[in-house]
């Protein structure tokens, strides 16, 4: 997770033309980066193929989002 945050910090600093602190990143996107990193590690662990990944993306895009309340 730390490596991914460092990479994100470098990219954002370059794009925005101003320094982004690690504290700012952790506060704003730390949980999201942690979750994405976890999902990526799970995909690697089960040796998910590119074909399977694309199928998952299509399934997700074709299924409408439902609210937690079921409405």
UniProtKB/TrEMBL annotation:
SUPFAM superfamilies: Nuclear receptor ligand-binding domain
UniProt keyword terms in alphabetical order: DNA-binding, Nucleus, Receptor, Transcription, Transcription regulation
Residues covered by the NR LBD domain: 1-71
Gene Ontology molecular function: DNA binding
Highest taxon, organism lineage: Eukaryota
Keyword Nuclease recorded: no
Protein name (Swiss-Prot/TrEMBL): NR LBD domain-containing protein
